Amino acid sequence: MPSLFFADLVREHCHEGGAGALTPAGALPGHRGFADAVPADTPFHYAIAGIAFAGEWEAGTGRIDGAGRLARDSVAASSNGGAAVDFTPGLKTLALTVGADWFAARDASAAAVEAALGGKQPLSTLHPGTATGAADDLITVRRGEGWVNIPIASFAYQGASGAVTVGAPLACPAGSAAAPALSFAGDANTGLFNAGADAIGFALGGMERARMTATGLGFGTTTPYARVELVAAASMPGLGIGAAAGAQNLGLELYGLMDSLPPAQARGFVGIGNSGVGIAGDLLLAPRSSTMASIRFLTGSAGAVERWRITAAGTLQPGSDNGYDLGAASMRVRTIYAATGAINTSDARDKAWRGAPDAAELRAARRIAAELGFYQWLGAIAEKGAGAARLHFGVRAQAVWAIMAEEGLVDPIGGEGDADGARYAFLCRDEWQDAEGAQTRFGVREGQLALFLIAGLEARIAALEATA
């Protein structure tokens, strides 16, 4: 029987007339409109009832066409003797309903099914049915010319707990990656097979993806050399570890005891993924217990040397006092954000004091002050354009160096960019080798240079005051 669309409480009023499509003009109170409830061009049962002309009515199957009108495709009953009614313009209702012919068709279909089954013998016996088996159940089978009873425990059967019980060890054929011995009904080339003596192969999609041997478990290799060995394919990550959203456990935990470390330092773990204190993608290094612990970074070839440490209090410090740099001449740190300024050691006990600047140094300081000016970094201009690159204020290191050399305080910069003999710490020159050969870069220690310029300014002010 036909299956047509149905929705509850769909009824609108209409004022149009004619024997063709009619346009709904708004839902009646407590009802929905066709546009809100019925998909376009989807057949359904309709009923049209005249109000202004109560003698006009019609029921049948139709649909809402692309223009939103009720297209009357087939008339089942009407005030026009079962034919389409040429409605008189005036108030009427359009409703989605279920026609009497649909109920008649449904009853006829059910009666036909009952009649077809009436003379058939059921497949089951007349005994009561059960969904599970018991170990002492018997199954009657044909053997030779007679019949025998076999305990169900000799087979695989589903017990009362819902689990399938196998009454004896399984002896499967070896199988292969393409046809595993143990597979799944809907995925025949995925499962387990005997890959060799004392070896189990794991097949997915007809290909061996892992193998367990007496040595260990191998992923991407059939001959693991360790308890677990993973060999990644080209252009694939070897291992990805994470944790579900909101998980309190870390994705990876490594711990153990090392003879070379005291027990208090030995137990710890590396957490990768989502933990209770991080977000997805975090690398969390933490102790396994509440014991205060630090994170140490060691490098070296002949022997591991501690280079940096994050203490239990959160301080980042070098492995030895005044031992390591942050960045390098060819690998500079871009920006350092700090709530307060840097603290430089200025302890008198660590200094051999020389005293105030001499006349040549004061002349150099006054000349360097005249070199102060605004500038833009060439890299910023290339990236942002001259109009957007920020203005910085300072000096040009080579100009400072030249003034110091002209006052006889340092050796001048040579034609190849060398500058030997610079005894003043605020003058910096670094060199390194890269793929393009020897490289150099000049710089200044701005804090020391600023104090040097202040000394020159103070001397100039004192001279002016002396002549006033």
Comma- or semicolon-separated keywords:
468 residues; Arc Repressor Mutant, subunit A; six-stranded mixed sheet; flat; single chain
Question: Going across the major beta sheet, what is the strand order?
Answer: 10-11-12-13-14-15
Largest sheet: 6 strands, mixed
Give the C-alpha Rg.
46 Å
Q: Please report the first level of CATH classification, the CATH class of one domain.
A: Mainly Alpha
CATH topology title of one domain: Arc Repressor Mutant, subunit A
Strand content: 25-35%
Helix content: 10-25%
Which structural class matches the secondary elements?
alpha+beta
Mean pLDDT: 84
How would you describe this structure to a colleague?
The protein is an alpha+beta fold and 468 residues long. Among the domains are: 11-105, no CATH class; 182-230, no CATH class; 359-467, Arc Repressor Mutant, subunit A (Orthogonal Bundle), CATH 1.10.10.10. Helices cover 17% and strands 28% of the residues. The protein is built from seven helices and 24 strands. It has helices at 34-37, 100-118, 263-266, 359-370, 378-384, 397-406, 446-467, and strands at residues 11-14, 44-50, 57-64, 70-78, 92-97, 138-143, 146-151, 156-158, 164-166, 182-184, 187-196, 199-204, 207-212, 217-219, 228-230, 269-273, 282-286, 295-299, 305-310, 316-318, 373-375, 392-394, 427-434, 437-444. A six-stranded mixed sheet has the order 10-11-12-13-14-15, with no helix packed on it. A hairpin with a 5-residue loop joins strand 19 and strand 20. The longest helix is centred in the last third of the chain and has 22 residues, at 446-467. It starts with 10 loop residues before the first strand and ends with a helix.
